[in-house]
């Protein structure tokens, strides 16, 4: 599999790119990658912080505990007139 023939490409892509244009795209991609890496590191640290705090905190039955979620009963929804497409 080689490079695509220029005639198979749309007209706006047929013009060969210059080295300067490639450098601009590479710089943009590098910057985007750097920002994503920083965001990923930030999210990892937040996740680690919440895991540490949940391990350190005593197990209390709060409003979001599984016991409370089991007690919540959802209303029954009538299935009359609903077609099953599965």
TrEMBL record:
The lineage of its organism: Eukaryota, Metazoa, Chordata, Craniata, Vertebrata. Residues 9-85 form the Coiled coil protein 74 C-terminal domain. It comes from the Eukaryota. Pfam families: CCDC74_C. It comes from Molossus molossus. Residues 49-86 are annotated as: Disordered. This is Coiled coil protein 74 C-terminal domain-containing protein.
């Amino acid at each position: 599999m080689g490079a695509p023939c220029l005639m198979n490409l749309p007209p706006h892509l047929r013009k060969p790119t210059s080295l300067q244009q490639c450098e601009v795209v590479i710089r943009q991609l590098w910057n985007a990658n750097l920002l994503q890496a920083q965001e990923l590191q930030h999210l990892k640290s937040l996740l680690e912080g919440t895991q540490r705090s949940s391990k350190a905190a005593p197990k209390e039955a709060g409003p979001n505990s599984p016991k409370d979620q089991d007690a919540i009963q959802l209303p029954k929804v009538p299935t009359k007139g609903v077609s099953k497409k599965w």
